[in-house]
Amino acid sequence: MLELNRIHCGDNCDLLGQMPRESVDLVVTSPPYDDLRTYGGHGWDFFGVAWHLKRVLKPGGVIVWVVADATKDGSETGSSMEQALHFKRLGLNLHDTMIYKKRSYLPQNSPTRYDQCWEFAFVLVAGAAPRVANLLRDRPNVKAGSRYTTGGRRGADGATVDTRSIEAEEWGLRSNAWDYAANSNDGHPAQMPYDLARDHVATWSNPGDLVLDPFSGSGTTAKAAKTLGRQFIGLEVNPDYCAIAEQRIAQGVLELA
Questions:
Q1: Which of 188, 210, 232, 215 minimizes the C-alpha distance to 46?
Q2: For 35-63, what is each residue's pLDDT tens digit?
Q3: Which of 3, 52, 8 has the alpha carbon at shortest distance from 216?
Q4: Whether the Cβ atoms of residue 242 and residue 9 lie closer than 8 Å to each other
Q5: Distance CA 52, CA 16 (A)
Q6: How many Cβ atoms from other residues are within 10 Å of residue 77's Cβ?
Q7: pTM for this model (two decimals)
Q8: Strands 57-67 and 24-29, how do they pair?
Q9: CATH of domain 6-136+181-250
Q10: Residue 203, Cα to own-chain centre: how many angstroms?
């Protein structure tokens, strides 16, 4: 087993091979997208990483796979969806297709398509449902204090059934589209927003659980896990990024806004 609460520098498939089966509660990661970044010239094996992640994930464990597509010859590659479907073929459930929306993004000024401002965040589960789901309720509810009917569905005859009356709370459940401001890159060309990693760690794990990031980069997931009282393991092939991650993690558990 790899040492906990540190960044391990090396090929992620080689390092994942040193981890026992069903040892990880949660994976939060953002792999390289197609060939949009060079990342120091390091490549990676999607099929090997996917197989290992399925192997090390505990029953009920979750993988959050944040990814997007390049556009080549006028067409999006579709590699994000192909990756999600491959995880399904390995036996994981595609629990939710979430969206990470960027509050600020570089306009492409294309004459034929709208600006791209979001990425997929596939939530994959080893089993029928996540073992942990601390769903976030931080959306101000305009109906707070009022009662309304919800939960209904149409029966075979078209009538509404299974409705229930509830009182709206002050804070409502989030939707599955989350928007965040981008971080400064801290020497990494495509850093995951800290708040995105933190909110997924908070949702799909409990204190003391083990959180893994096989594409650790500048250590954002590891930092979020440490801040929230989780164990963590980060894997990163680029020695420069390993050094950045180790420095961030050594700074303590408080993340400045």
A1: 215
A2: 644 445 557 899 999 999 999 999 999 99
A3: 8
A4: yes
A5: 6
A6: 16
A7: 0.87
A8: parallel
A9: 3.40.50.150
A10: 11
